[in-house]
């Protein structure tokens, strides 16, 4: 009996590998460019034990198409200049590795990358503050390969309100999209830059739904019903995204997977306050100081992580509401200090595929989730 069970387990794992590596895998959100700058390393180095990702491990994990997050927090001076630095860093990696990756600016470029077995790379601008309220800068982002923009990060750019500000009683700014904010959305539709509603507040979300003429995405968000935090999407929002034809890409961050994680993480950080403060004094952004400490104490940080099955509860809930055509992957790797225990790095994506097989999904549906759903939204937004 034990031998039969073991053979079945091995057979399932092999089947998962086959489906996984024969599908186009798209991850809509990875922060490794920021992580590389903060840690003073390069993406084309072996970053095992340093980052969740590097160029070689994308290939080994089956990633075919990565949208690289361009991010800085709301405190960073000259966010547009910082964004250009991050984009320059990926262009430099691409120039050094023309046999391994291509920055794709068209559907033709994407197909060429897939056919030549190279990583297709594009950018996602994480936070509307990075355009500095200038539509010309938005166009520059697009021209350089940005194919979506998250309208807000946790801060509000002045023309759209974030989830964090909308729930803050002290926030005195405009809630939702201002007239300029609606102009930004319309310009994005015109350019072919996908509107991303991860991080936005509910007022902004509904203004987007009533303004956009193209399918939208949540590049890295989960279900509020499963994990009630303001970064996750409520059921009426999920239903609206389904009606819009958009896609919700699952975020691996433990705190958006399991609400109990935050208390455990607070205790972990308290135990390492002095080390975190020391990193902050060097100028490191707060999010990355937490990540460095989590990596330094893996046994402690692993002990408080949720299981992969908890992430799959988000998947199941979204599929129940709007179907398998509206879910994808937006890991947030290298922008988070904790993910489900089984999903430690980009090498672990096949385990997600195996979880889909265990649930009985067909090859066709699994390929949709891994990348096909995003590709549909990309085509609906772009005329290239």
TrEMBL record:
Protein's organism: Aquirufa esocilacus
- Identify one Pfam family in the record: Peptidase_M19
User: Signal among the record's keywords?
Assistant: yes
GO terms for molecular function, please? Answer: dipeptidase activity
Q: What is its EC number?
A: 3.4.13.19
Write out the entry's keywords from A to Z: Dipeptidase, Hydrolase, Protease, Signal
- Which region is the signal sequence? 1-16
- Name of the protein: Dipeptidase
């Amino acid at each position: 009996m034990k031998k039969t069970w073991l053979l079945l387990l091995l057979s399932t794992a092999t089947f998962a590998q086959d489906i996984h590596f024969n599908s186009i895998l798209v991850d809509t959100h990875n922060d490794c460019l920021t992580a590389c700058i903060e840690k003073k390393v390069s993406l084309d180095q072996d970053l095992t034990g340093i980052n969740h990702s590097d160029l070689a491990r994308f290939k080994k994990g089956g990633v075919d198409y990565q949208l690289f997050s361009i991010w800085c927090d709301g405190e960073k001076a000259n966010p547009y200049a910082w964004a250009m630095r991050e984009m320059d860093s990926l262009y430099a990696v691409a120039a050094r590795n023309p046999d391994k990756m291509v920055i794709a600016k068209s559907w033709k470029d994407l197909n060429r990358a897939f056919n030549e077995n190279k990583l297709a790379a594009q950018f996602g601008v994480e936070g509307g503050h990075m355009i500095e309220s200038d539509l010309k800068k938005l166009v520059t982002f697009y021209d350089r390969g940005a194919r979506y923009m998250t309208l807000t990060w946790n801060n509000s750019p002045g023309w759209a309100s974030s989830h964090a500000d909308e729930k803050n009683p002290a926030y005195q700014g405009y809630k939702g999209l201002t007239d300029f904010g609606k102009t930004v959305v319309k310009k994005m539709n015109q350019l072919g830059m996908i509107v991303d509603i991860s991080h936005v507040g509910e007022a902004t979300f509904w203004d987007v739904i009533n303004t956009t003429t193209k399918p939208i995405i949540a590049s890295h968000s989960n279900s509020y019903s499963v994990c009630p935090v303001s970064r996750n999407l409520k059921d009426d929002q999920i239903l609206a995204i389904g009606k819009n034809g958009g896609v919700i890409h699952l975020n691996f961050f433990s705190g958006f997977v399991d609400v109990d994680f935050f208390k455990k993480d607070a205790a972990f950080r308290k135990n390492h306050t002095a080390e975190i403060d020391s990193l902050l004094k060097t100028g490191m952004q707060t999010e990355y100081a937490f990540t460095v400490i989590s990596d330094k104490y893996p046994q402690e940080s692993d002990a408080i992580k949720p299981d992969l099955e908890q992430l799959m509860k988000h998947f199941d809930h979204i599929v129940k509401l709007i179907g398998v055509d509206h879910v994808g992957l937006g890991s947030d790797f290298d922008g988070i200090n904790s993910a489900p225990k089984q999903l430690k790095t980009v090498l672990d994506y096949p385990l997600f595929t195996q979880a889909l097989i265990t649930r009985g999904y067909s090859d066709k549906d699994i390929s949709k989730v891994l990348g096909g759903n995003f590709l549909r939204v990309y085509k609906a937004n772009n005329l290239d």
